[in-house]
Amino acid sequence: PESDKGPLNPDQIKRDSHTNNCIITLISSLDIWTQLSMRRKFDIIFNRAPIEKKTEKQNIISQELKEILESREIPKSPLQIVKRTDKPATITSAPEFPACLG
């Protein structure tokens, strides 16, 4: 149960905060991407404009999607920001956040 856990140490709080920031960043990127994708699908299905205008509009939306996905950065880990000291930081054997996700 939750009551069996001891108080959280500062390193755990930093890791949890970083994980939450990564999740928020990824979710907001996914939300924007989903909205633009739905707009593109709507335009394909319901827009009766000449083919040249449709293609141009699709290219603009595709470029917006690409720019959004390329501009998003995962927040840096607080462990990477902390200045190095002579004494190395000790990290408990808690499972680490997957490197591929941030």
UniProtKB/TrEMBL annotation:
Superkingdom of source: Eukaryota
Biological source species: Pectinophora gossypiella (Cotton pink bollworm)
Full protein name: Uncharacterized protein
